Amino acid sequence: MQPGLIIIIAIVSAILSFAVSFLLLKWWFSRKYAEWQIIERASLDAERKSIRKQAITQSRAVLGGRFTEQMAPYLPEFKYDPTEARFIGSPVDMMVFPGLSQGEPTEIIIMEIKNGPCAQLTPVERKIQRLVEEGMVRWELLERSGEQSSLDEDLQP
Asked: Could you give phi then psi for residue 155, rounded to 5 degrees?
């Protein structure tokens, strides 16, 4: 055999070996990539379902909590006359004026309603609690000036 032919055969077989190896590796990596995609899609779907379920559960808890806050005066645990309670919602849930129904309020109660085993005051609610406990509460009267009243009279038919 001629040395040139041997070199050509060696080069062609090297190119064929490289091409076959490349195609086999490409097929193997493509298969592995497709398997990885299937696993990741399943994982993402499961995570999406979990997040959706958690959001629904949390939403129900929030709605249930708001319902409980507004219905608190009618619950058996409520110690005051429901007609003397005023729902505020934020930053505190309710104010109660014991004795108001007889026209003789005796105190003012700022009430926060919590529901559930993990119920905790928010930082703002804790701050308001501290302000009340420290006596940092006052009465203020806002009176409208006569100028504003005359404007209201001009608007009446």
From this structure: -80, -20
Residues in the chain: 157
Residue type present at position 24: L
* DSSP track, the chain: --HHHHHHHHHHHHHHHHHHHHHHHHHHHHHHHHHHHHHHHHHHHHHHHHHHHHHHHHHHHHHHHHHHHHHGGGSTT--S-GGGEEE--SSSSEEE-TTGGGT-----EEE----STT----HHHHHHHHHHHTT----------HHHHHHHHHH--
Residue 123: the pLDDT is 93
Q: Which two tokens stand for residue 4?
A: 């040139």
* 50: pLDDT strictly greater than 70: yes
